[in-house]
Design brief:
160 residues; mainly alpha; two-stranded antiparallel ribbon; 7 helices; globular
C-alpha cells in the first residue's frame, strides 16, 4: 500500500490542497486563455473552412491534455524532479521543468511541423511550474485543457 502511495505522489496523482486559492494559478488560467484566443486566430490565418467533429473537440480539450500531462508532468517531470540534476534551478524554474518543456515541444513538432508548434514550449513551462509548485498534475491538467478549449472559439472567430 505504501508503494502505491509513493507511485501516486511521484506521478503527481495527489490532490493539490490550495490550487484554487493560488492567485498565480488563477492568473495563469486567465492570461493563458486570453493568449490561446489570440494564438488561435494566428494559427488558422488563411483557412476558409474550419470544422471540428465532437471527437476532435473531446480529444483536444480532454483526451490529449490527460495523456500529455500524465506522461510529461507526471512521469517525466516527476522522475527528473527526483534527480539531483532535475532539482537544480534555471531562472527560478526547475531544470526538470525546463527539460520536460523541451521534450513536450519536441513531441508537438513531431506531429505538427510549423512555427506555431514551437510556442507550446511556453505553456509547457507554465504547466511544469504548477507541477513543481503543488506537487500534482491537476493544475497543469486544468490549464492545458482550458488553454486548448480557448483555441476553439479563436479559430471560429477568425472564420467569420
Amino acid at each position: 500500500m505504501a508503494n502505491d502511495t509513493n507511485i501516486r505522489e511521484d506521478l503527481g496523482l495527489v490532490p493539490p490542497p490550495r490550487l484554487f486559492t493560488d492567485r498565480k494559478f488563477i492568473l495563469a488560467l486567465v492570461v493563458g486563455c486570453g493568449v490561446s484566443l489570440l494564438v488561435a486566430d494566428w494559427s488558422v490565418a488563411g483557412s476558409a473552412n474550419l470544422s471540428l467533429t465532437s471527437l476532435q473537440v473531446f480529444s483536444l480539450v480532454l483526451w490529449y491534455p490527460v495523456l500529455e500531462e500524465l506522461l510529461f508532468r507526471g512521469a517525466i517531470q516527476g522522475f527528473l524532479g527526483s534527480t539531483a540534476l532535475g532539482k537544480r534551478a534555471l531562472m527560478g524554474l526547475s531544470l526538470a521543468n525546463v527539460l520536460t518543456a523541451i521534450l513536450f515541444t519536441a513531441m508537438h513538432l513531431f506531429y505538427r511541423a510549423d512555427p506555431l508548434a514551437w510556442l507550446v514550449f511556453f505553456p509547457g513551462l507554465v504547466f511544469g511550474y504548477f507541477r513543481d509548485r503543488h506537487g500534482a498534475i491537476l493544475g497543469p491538467l486544468i490549464l492545458h485543457s482550458a488553454y486548448n478549449a480557448c483555441l476553439i472559439p479563436g479559430w471560429f472567430l477568425l472564420a467569420f
